[in-house]
Amino acid sequence: MLRRPKPTDSEADLLREQQELLAARGQSSVAVVKRPDKRRGDAAAAEPHEQGIQRDVVTIEDLPDELPTLTPAPPKKSRFKQERVRFEDEDPDERLDRHDTHISAVLSRIIERDTSAVPVSLPCITGTAFPKVLHRSVMDTLRGRKSIFARQIAAQRAKKEDVHFSWLTKTMKIHEENQSKLKTMSQSEILEEQRKLLAQLDPRLVEFVRSRKPQRTPGSESASGPVTSPELDHTTEAQESQRETMEDEEEDENQLVVQAPITGLPIKPQKEWLHMDKVESEKLEWTRDLPAPRKQSTKKAMQARFDFAGTLIPPTKDLPTHLGLHHHGEEPELAGYSLQELFLLSRSQLNQQRNLAVSTLANVLAKARAGEYISSLKGSVLSSLLDAGLLFLLRFSLDDSVKGVMSAAVHALRALLVSSDDEECLDNAFPWLLGMATFPLLPTAQEDEDDEGLDETIKETAREKEEKKTDHDVASQDVVKGFLKMQGLPRLRYILEVVRPSPRVVLDILEVLIRIARHSTAAATQILACPRLMNTVISEFLPCSWAPATSQALSSLYGLPVALAMKLLRVLASAGRHACARILNSLGGKELLSRFVVVEPSEMLLETGEALRCSTEALRLFAVAASYGQACNLYTDLYPVLVKRLQAGNLLCASSEAVPFLELDRIKALMVLLTRVTQTAGSHEELQRGLVRLDYTSTMWSSSMICNPGLSAAGGEVVPSLPGLGCSRLKTSSTMAGPNTPLSLPTALLYLLNTITSIHKGLTKKFSHLILSDSVLSYLQSCIGAMPSVSHMSAWILHHEHHLLYLLLRLAHKLVTATSVPVDPEVAKHAALFHQVSLALVSWLLPGSEYLAHELMSVMTFSHCLLPEGVDGETEVAALAELQLKDRTSPAVGALLRDALQHLPSIRGCYLTHLAHLESSVLSSRDRYLGRTPFVSSHLLPELTGPSLPTDWPFLPLISLYERMGLSAGGEQQVESLPAGSVQSVTHCLQWLLVLESWREQALTVVPPVAKLARLACVFLCSSDLFLERPVQELTWALFRGLTRPAQLEALDLGSPPPGLASFHDLYSALLAQYEAVSFGDPLFGCFMLLPLQRRYSVTMRLAVFGEHVGMLRSLGVSLQQLPIPLEKFTSPMEDSLPLLRLYFRALVTGALKRNWCPVLYAVAVAHLNAFIFSQDEVAEVNYLCNKTSVILTFHYLHLLLSPLYISLDVLTFSDMSGFFVSPGVKEPPASFSAAPTEFRAGLQHL
């Protein structure tokens, strides 16, 4: 058999094999067939066959000799012909439309060119009717081979050159005249003229000219040589430079041009260097030594620059170049990198530059979170970076294929999101009572203005809005949510699972996941739902078996237990009971707890600190599971081990040696676990042995977040989209967040005392010395009047301090209300103090503490025992204070207070009924507080939006009725149509407000006086005649008099909008309309309408009364005796609004305002008009009034007014108006008339 040819065969070998094939008469494996040439036609294709020339033909088996025919047969002539294949069933009309080349088809596709940006040149305006015709005879002098148009352009250029030459001639003539005049002047005259000229010019312009060109002394250069104009100098220099350039180009390219030597360069250009035949000095400037940084003489802000460690470099600091901080930027002499330059380097093509930029940004972020730039830089570095797209930059860097860049991006992400101080403080607070409950780190919710005024049915849901938002919009509002939307979790899983980075990167990723889990329950659920993420964490960093570490510096954490991984499980379990059950059952959490709880830390084959942290986090995870009522079987199995650990911890704490913090944290975690599982308390003997002296309360008020709101100030930079706890400053300024906090032990002890006194009430008196200690009383006194600020930085401490304060008040209430033994007089003396603190605490309680608010309002707030004023005769004192000789329109306050004290149980029921909408929150909070583990859904508290109850909660029944009836029904509901019990509810609300205003005024200081007035106005807007009910009117009169006391009246500012309203003027407009409709001249309603008309308030409300609602003056019959506001508040100072004075005048002239209809406003209008007419101050408005065209008409109406005015004024003889009116019976103008303007006096004399 013949072999196949090989590449190594020569030509001789191939020929030999061919001869062997032919000798063997073998058949070839292929047949070569040459196709006919279609371009030569059929005849040419048939010639070879006719001539008998045998050609090679290639044939393939099972292939027909002829191709199948198509109808019509497509002769493949050309590419254009192929595109026009026609079929039999094709519609001719469609083919015609497809290949139509009619003019209409062409014109329909014409696109007009955009000529909006093309300049339009208008023809020149000439004196003739038509443009001048260009004749050939004009161009005879410009004959040549140029066109007529080119000749015309050349003529225009020649004309311009003539004009320019003539201008130069004139300039030279002027210059020569100046030179000749200078020659005739002496040197002193020249200097004098120069001084005058400089005095007339702007000094800045002179300085600019001197800096651009050195000044030449007159006569020095001009006298020595010929004078040339600057234009000629410029032209000569341009010609010379052009001539030199042409000569340089004509020289040999290989020869070095002889130039002035360039000094200061570290290198010397050589002739042999490529393309260095002509040295360009400006391109070699970068090789010179850097100049020293110049000191800035101005206070202008400069761009911040940082070194590689993130340290801010002062602009005047001169650093050596070997540090690598100098580069070819805009300011090469300054060391360091700006944020803009770091962003640019982070997208470089060089791996080292990207790594360097991202690492530097990570260091800058860490220092910015610590607050190191606050005193040095203007603005927030963190906010600037986030606005510039830092989160997107880090997300892109996480996808980098270079491991170093990816590791730097993880480190920068950790610096952005994680605060080590916050995590440390939360770990320290875990063993506190209810310490595992934390607020979610959600940004403050922003209201969407687009949905305002829309119906509820067409409003978009939160999920629909979230889906429509872009990544940038989400990240600008919430950084964590934006990172989740960018698919950051799958990328972190890929890094852990596939890349398997260094230990530092692993720890950074675990800390980032912990911070994301603290964001919200939804974020924790996304972590658990991310495919293979938690499986990778548990299998790689929480193995059940591992080999001991061979060295102290670990090169990899894979296959070894990591405490942060166990902490991640604990934080995820705190997000909800379903998440905890998933960890225990689906992810093997029970096996992990059995492994790490049973084994002693010394037997874990790990570093001592890491082993203790792993054991502590395992116990904390066990405690979180037990708080949901889960893993109870595991507790039964591990009971002997846990008891053994408890005994060992007791012995360790009883020894005289100092206990390490890590070991103490482990013991605390064990105590929390046993508390959650067993829910037991100590015996009475153990309590007496432990209650020797409570020293923690001595430092309570100094470290209290309630008494010292400044402690919650941020220590570092704060970004609204990335909230934190701000514990870096709190750790240094207070001991509240440290291991020796004064919160944990007193809270646990008071919880134990309340539990014992609930079981054995006879033991209550034994703890009176604790409540009456000076430190506790001082702490309670400091809480009165405090206004703590609520934010993420203070809420987590305030939550625990509120709990401590509640337990303290509950124990004090038990001492005051003890029935088995007589009440200690010292305790009863401080009952009012306990009541004031309880009222303040109700307004402070945060979301998640609704059960405490319910308990306070049920037990203490409306307790008769905590209102000693009702027993000590305070009501009689109030009645004597209200005693007057004349009859009053309402009973004394003392009787109203006595009636309110008798109805305290009904008042309490009224307020609890109006808080029924918080029932679900109260039940959830109760289950968490009482330790009802099967019903606890999550240890993440509700979103922090402020206190649970509004600060004006005493007005709640009144506001609720107004929202149901006043707005929806337009304020026209009758009493019969009001909801059942509405009158009684409003009465109870007004009674409680009267009690607070009389005896607990401090409790309402958080409500501004304008808000109190606006809330009381709801009495008139709720219904048409609710304010006419006798109990409602009596209580409203009493509250209105309290609101118009001198101190309260001075504090009443109607210019600031009340909470919940756009402005007070809107509320007053509604009151005006309601008064005109349903008031029936009620004095109480009238006093409310007169209060905003005082002179110191806005004139718009007085204009509304005398302009739009002038008809109400007929029924506004409040007498001067009924008005609780001094009349001077309405008449002083003099009115300066001309439109209002005109309205006063019109109301008096037309009879719309009469003394017997509206005595108060009648007196006010007459007083202001009298003061305006006879004023000695010639203000601009008076001069405006006294013009020649209007003065006669004005005094004509004044004459109609004066005749009855002089007669009717004799009834106004009270002392308050003696300075504002003309004396009775006087027919002559007063003495002040002589000081009036001339036109005023002339007009009156004319009349």
TrEMBL record:
Keyword Transmembrane helix: no
Single GO BP term: transcription by RNA polymerase II
Residues covered by the RPAP1/MINIYO-like TPR repeats domain: 954-1179
Compositional bias of kind Basic and acidic residues: 39-53, 231-245
Entry keywords, A to Z: Nucleus, Transcription
Region (Disordered) residue spans: 25-96, 209-253
Residue ranges of every copy of the RPAP1 C-terminal domain listed in the record: 303-368
Major subcellular site: nucleus
Coiled coil (residue ranges): none
Subcellular location per the Swiss-Prot or TrEMBL entry: Nucleus
Residue ranges occupied by any RPAP1 N-terminal domain in the UniProt entry: 173-213
InterPro entries named among the record's database cross-references: ARM-type_fold, RPAP1/Rba50, RPAP1_C, RPAP1_N, TPR_RPAP1/MINIYO-like
Residue ranges with Polar residues bias: 217-227
Family stated for the protein in its record: Belongs to the RPAP1 family.
Protein name, per record: RNA polymerase II-associated protein 1-like
